[in-house]
Amino acid sequence: MFNPIKIKNLEIPNRVMRSATWDATSDEYGAVTETSVKIYRDLGKGNIGLIVTGHAYVSHPLGQATPRQYGIYADESIPGLKKLVKAVRNGGDSKIAVQIAHAGINSGYLMEKGFRPLAASHLPDVKRPHHEMTEQDIETTISDFVAAAVRGREAGFDAVQLHGAHGYLLSQFISPLFNNRVDDWGGDPEKRRRIHLEIIRRIRKAIGSDYPLFIKFGVMDDRPGGLSLAQGIEAAQEFIAAGVDFIEVSGGVGAAATYIKPGDGDRPVFRERAAALKKAVKIPVAVVNGVRSPQVANEIIASGDADMVSFSRPFIREPQFISRWAGGDLSPATCISCNKCFPIVQRGEPMECGEDRRLREEKRAARK
């Protein structure tokens, strides 16, 4: 876990990754705030090899998934994003990447604002209002991803990561559950992943051959009739040929059933699919979700199932638990996987451990 790793020309001091985590600290336009900077300052002191920002939306307003989400849709975002890079660099040797994303149909926030979210295709069984993307919508979105990647490089990030998981737009296009188009952007596995390949190729052309490009990829869906693991691996191989340097394996459509629950301890639910992908590709692979102890993290890497181990919720409660492990305290992360952090950010409040908030409120009530 504490051995260095090289991704393309990027030297990462260890094999621990902080996965992209929405923190609900931007302003209403997606700009970085001082609360945002504090989060990354704390993470930068935590001996984390690679830190990925919360998802930043590439298109305004239709790319936005959630309130107080970072935006990277305009050049005006660059000065604030530079502050996140500086905060991490001032803390130590960690590297930092920006995740760029488009919500597609999965934006209840947009509906609350009176917008009809864009969708990969019309879905007659989905009651929420949505608009099937036209050819022009698709071309505009591809251009938005490219422009966002260039802004990430200009802001000083060490890499850019595409969000191709969790049912967001790219995940929708590649999934037969969400993409029933019969044109050049759907109808068979090759056409369903065409938007990924166009984005990757055009980003690679715009940022040059040396700048690292990552993807967080839902390599299979967890609903009947969805993207199969074999199809996901085949797609990943094409992404690599087009210019991707590193893949973080996560869930696609319907991944909620695989999330670990309170009291589960270590349960790396995506490990088997990460291992299958790792056997089929030659670039580094990370796996996220369900690791809570250093013993399991080390075993995943030592076994060759993945090259890096990625964490999200544990860093909410304990931003510097990796430093604790490095110092010899090998007790598991204090995150209990209760998911009480989710309702906090869903209300648009800054990210916080829900269990810590509960304990704090109990102490306050006891003092009264």
Q: How many DSSP helices?
A: 14
Under CATH, the topology can be stated as TIM Barrel
Residue stretches low in confidence (pLDDT < 50, at least 5 long) are none
Largest sheet: 8 strands, parallel, barrel
CATH architecture annotation name: Alpha-Beta Barrel
- Report Rg: 19 Å
Looking at CATH, the homologous superfamily is Aldolase class I
Shape verdict: globular
Order of helices and strands: EEEHEEHEHEEHEHHHEHEHEHEHHHH
CATH C-level: Alpha Beta
Please indicate the count of domains. Answer: 1
Structural class: alpha/beta
- First and last CA, distance: 46 Å
Spatial order of the strands in the main sheet? 3-4-6-9-10-11-12-13
Query: How many strand segments?
Result: 13
Strand composition percent:
5-15%
Helical percentage: 25-40%
Mean pLDDT: 94
Keywords:
368 residues; alpha/beta; TIM Barrel; eight-stranded parallel β-barrel; two-stranded antiparallel sheet; 38% helix
Describe the fold and architecture:
- With 368 residues, the protein is α/β, with parallel strands linked by helices.
- It has a single domain, classed as Alpha-Beta Barrel (TIM Barrel), CATH 3.20.20.
- The protein has an 8-stranded parallel beta barrel, surrounded by 6 helices.
- The longest helix is centred in the middle third of the chain and has 20 residues.
- The model has no long low-confidence stretch (mean pLDDT 94).
